[in-house]
Design a protein that fits this description.
Elements lengths: L1 H17 L22 H16 L4 H13 L1 H19 L16 H10 L24 E3 L5 E3 L3 E5 L12 H14 L14 H13 L4 E5 L2 H12 L5 E5 L4 H10 L2 E5 L4 H14 L6 E6 L11 H11 L2 E5 L14 H4 L9 E5 L9 E5 L1 H10 L1 H4 L6 H16 L2 H19 L13 E4 L10 H19 L1 E2 L17 E4 L6 H19 L1
Parallel strand pairs: 3-12, 5-6, 5-7, 7-8, 8-9
Antiparallel strand pairs: 1-2, 2-3, 4-10, 9-10, 11-13
Length: 529
């Protein structure tokens, strides 16, 4: 504005009248002002520089005096100008770079390309690649073509008994779940078309979160579209550099991935070793004087070992040493507790004892995705800081409807959970009679990992995996029973023992469960000896 121009001109005049001119430097005119009230610095500077250069042709001292005057009167401007000039010269001298494009004449011919491919060798493929000891060459992988009904259908082998999936309550194949999913597809389509925070939230998401909030007695609940990414997103949201995590060595790769991403200081304690956990907590409290976020991270029902965490003792220790608790109960929901609500219900503990309680909709709830329950601060923080929630497409509406319906059926038909518990007890009883042993605190788990019995001499790990794979294939082709040989990842630093995974299910009678367990045990022992 004109007022601004007047004030700036007055200030320049006042400064000039009070400052004593330097006798050994010539004075310079003030910077001109543009018509809109801003100083036209580049134009005036370039004009003045041009005038000086012209005069310097006849008198080189003019250029020296001008530079000296500039340094004294405007040192910051001079520094910025020098940096800009150097940067422009540097960029001017750089060669242009075009990705994936060679200069003319340097493009290899077709014959040269074929020769390069033929002679190329890498340490990461072929014979030089270190094959993990739990890998089995040419392992048969059955293809499941149908999951509805009492039995599943397997390509080439027809109907088979499912003793390997985490569909403990058989709700994924329930008629009501399927019908409600089809109705949701007709109404909402097959996808949410965006993340929850943008335009991916639809009514089924809100209904499911409200239901999970009620079932798990929390202030809020949040759902994720991918179970594996749930814990690997939640852990970095609550722990970062400088924070402390105390983690059970038996957790699965989803948790290990989250622990690696968050860059917190990590202490590992031996699987289900409560004395070791307390020693670490004591050391952390005594050595770490800085106030940080401190977490105990564990699973409720361990996928890799088939046993339960000692949640009652962990809760006692977390209160004693002032730690927060994060529990991934992905395989305990629907399977543990009187009504199937998970590990806290199994121990008669309120869910609020777990600051962050995580579950899966992939297992007993017959859908896909994961969820987390907690107080308002815990859930609201995830909506802005959890990568799996913020940057992933929302859960398809029909899968949210399927999970809602499955939870309603579980609560309305408590006999399903009771039948699962009875079949679990029956199958474990048969396996123990056959000589198999299980970890402590695993009697309530419907997940049974059959490792080599203590009386059987163990071969190398690679041979163990091969024998178990043969037993799995034998059960499929000769007995039409589907079980699983758990696979390990290259990044699985705490790989569990070689084992065959057998799971109980609610839709069998106790007699059927015992017969299945007897057949599985007989075939497993035949290949393990």
């Amino acid at each position: 504005s004109k007022a601004t121009v007047s004030v700036l001109n007055w200030a320049a005049t006042a400064r000039g009248s009070h400052e004593q001119p330097r006798t050994h430097h010539r004075t310079r005119a003030p910077r001109t002002m543009s018509g809109n009230g801003t100083m036209d610095f580049p134009t005036s500077f370039l004009t003045e520089l041009a005038e000086v250069l012209i005069k310097a042709v006849n008198d080189p001292n003019v250029l020296y005096e001008w530079v000296t005057n500039e340094v004294h009167q405007h040192p910051i401007h001079v520094a910025v100008e020098i940096v800009c000039v150097v940067f422009i010269i540097y960029m001017w001298l750089q060669k242009p770079f075009i990705p994936d494009q060679l200069p003319p004449g340097e493009e290899p011919t077709k014959a040269e390309k074929e020769e390069l491919v033929k002679n190329w060798k890498s340490d990461k493929v072929g014979e030089n690649f270190p094959t993990p000891e739990f890998h089995v060459e040419n392992e048969h992988r059955p293809v499941i073509t149908r999951t509805t009904g009492k039995k599943i259908a397997v390509e080439e082998w027809g109907e088979c008994d499912d003793c390997g999936s985490f569909n403990f309550l058989r709700l994924a194949a329930h008629e009501k779940v399927i019908e409600s999913s089809l109705a949701a597809i007709e109404h909402y389509g097959v996808g949410a078309c965006g993340p929850r925070g943008f335009y991916g939230t639809v009514q089924p998401h809100l209904v499911l979160e409200e239901q999970l909030q009620r079932v798990y007695e929390s202030q809020q609940a949040i759902i994720y579209s991918f179970q594996y990414a749930t814990m690997s997103s939640i852990i970095p949201a609550f722990a970062s550099k400088g924070d402390i995590l105390v983690v059970d060595r038996g957790v699965n790769m989803s948790l290990i991935g989250g622990v690696d991403i968050c860059k917190a200081k990590v202490f590992w304690y031996d699987h289900n070793d409560m004395a070791g956990l307390e020693r670490i907590l004591q050391n952390v409290v005594s050595s770490e004087k800085k106030i940080t976020r401190r977490w105990i991270v564990t699973e409720g029902l361990f996928r890799n070992h088939g046993d339960l965490c000692h949640l009652d003792k962990i809760v006692e220790l977390r209160h004693k040493y002032k730690f927060r608790l994060m529990v991934d109960d992905s395989y305990g929901v629907g399977a543990l507790g009187k009504t199937g609500r998970g590990t806290p219900e199994h121990y008669n503990l309120p869910f609020s004892e777990c600051n962050v309680y995580v579950g899966s909709m992939d297992t007993s709830y017959g859908s896909v995705g994961g969820f987390c329950c907690g107080d308002n601060l815990v859930v609201d923080h995830q909506r802005l800081s959890s990568s799996g929630y913020c940057f992933s497409a929302a859960l398809p509406p029909y899968t949210a409807v399927a999970c809602t319906e499955a939870i309603d059926i579980m609560l309305a038909e408590p006999q399903r959970v009771t039948a699962l518990h009875m079949n679990t007890e029956a199958m474990r009883r048969v396996f123990k009679k056959k000589g198999f042993e299980f970890p402590e605190n695993s009697d309530a788990s419907p997940m049974m990992l059959l490792s080599y019995p203590p009386k059987v001499k163990k071969p190398s790990r690679r041979e163990q995996e091969k024998h178990i794979a043969d037993a799995v294939h034998d059960l499929l082709i000769n007995h039409q029973i589907v079980v699983v040989r758990p696979k390990c990842s290259f990044e699985d630093r705490f790989a569990p023992p070689a084992a065959m995974r057998v799971t109980a299910a609610a839709h069998y009678s106790v007699k059927e469960a015992e017969e299945l367990a007897a057949t599985i045990a007989t075939v497993a022992l035949k290949h393990m000896k």
